[in-house]
Amino acid sequence: MENSKIKEKLLSSSKDSRLEKFGKTLTFLCIAIIVFVVGLILVFVAQKGLSTFFVDGVNPFRFLFGTHWEPGAIGPDGKPAVGALPMFTGSLIVTVLSALVATPFAIGAGIYITEISPKYGAKILQPVIELLVGIPSVVYGFIGLTVVVPLIRNTFGGTGLGLLAGVFVLFVMILPTVTSMTVDALKAIPPHYREASLGLGATRWQTIWRVLLRAAAPGILTAVIFGMARAFGEALAIQMVVGNAVTMPQDLVSPASTLTSILTSGIPNATPGIQLNALWSLGLLLLLMSLLFNIAMRAIAKKGSLK
Question: Is 24 exposed, middle or buried (CB count within 10 Å of its CB: 0-12, 13-18, 19+)?
Fold first, then answer.
């Protein structure tokens, strides 16, 4: 009798086990809600964006590689003129150039904060970088409009609006993010990497260049791609300085456009039909590029963890 009571007590669920089951169930529900909401967003944007092709009869290749953007007009083939190549090219140019400019500064700042002056960097530089992350994009855009655009106008002529102004604005915007992630990647390197390199007689610079940067390379690449994802999806700041001219970019100092600038400027005045559907198609293209950036980040992070 006594043994059966002990067995029953051991098999019965305790308060801690019930709390653990409740926590697992609650966590699963939260994750399921997030996945459901993300799925709804993807389906909604895809449904709206694909209407341009299935409802209005626009050729997808004409949309992706066409250079004439005027949804209200009819092209020579009798189809709406909705070529997205100028905006996609502008987005790609400002994203790549801003990342190329920001990466050396981010790596240099990360090395200084983690290796050269950790105390000074942790007390002053890192809080300043974190503060820059929280500045609203409209502030960056306003500074670009009042400082960067006049500087480009006085140096190169023209209006000052264009991709070069967008590159400078996005460079400043993504620099704090890329720097913070680079610092985290350098801090995640095990201490024995440094100790082993210095113990073999390497100088501090040789240790940084040949050991630490190579070990942190996956994390730094992830930071750069994350910065590119933010630059590609930035809307308000880039709209204020790029000029919003729907033409193929000829140079960096002429007015141009990006996917986000056309979206933010066109949606308020778009009428239902091909005009609104074409803007949704731009949004779908922007969403697909964001997913591509996320896939690249996950692939790089996974490759780095396997090493």
Answer: exposed
> Hey, what are 211's tokens?
């050991």
Report pLDDT digits (tens) over 94-150: 999 999 999 999 999 888 888 888 777 777 887 888 788 888 888 998 999 999 999
Residues ≥6 apart with Cβ < 8 Å to 273: 56
Q: Please calculate the CA angle 268-49-264 and round it to the nearest 5 degrees.
A: 25
- Of 97, 103, 106, the C-alpha closest to 164 is 97
Per DSSP, what are the bridge partners of residue 74? 80
Amino acid at site 225 = I
pLDDT at 284 over 70: yes
Separation of alpha carbons 218 and 304, rounded Å: 5
Question: Is this prediction's pTM over 0.90?
Answer: no
Neighbouring CB atoms inside 10 A of 114's CB total 22
Residue of 270, 251, 240 whose CA lies nearest to 90 = 251
Q: Give the Cα-Cα-Cα angle 279, 50, 299 (nearest 5 degrees).
A: 90
CB 235 within 8 A of CB 264: yes
Report DSSP state, residue 247.
Answer: S
Q: Are 182 and 112 in contact (CB under 8 A)?
A: no
Report the amino acid identity of residue 306. Answer: L
Query: Residues 192, 196, 202, CA angle at the centre, nearest 5°?
Result: 135
In what helix (H) or strand (E) does residue 93 lie, and over which residues does it extend? helix 85-111
**Distance (Å, whole) CA 204 – CA 212:** 10
Specify the DSSP class assigned to residue 269: G
Closest CA to 160 of 261, 256, 257, 253: 253
Environment class of 177 (CB within 10 Å of its CB; exposed 0-12, middle 13-18, buried 19+)? buried
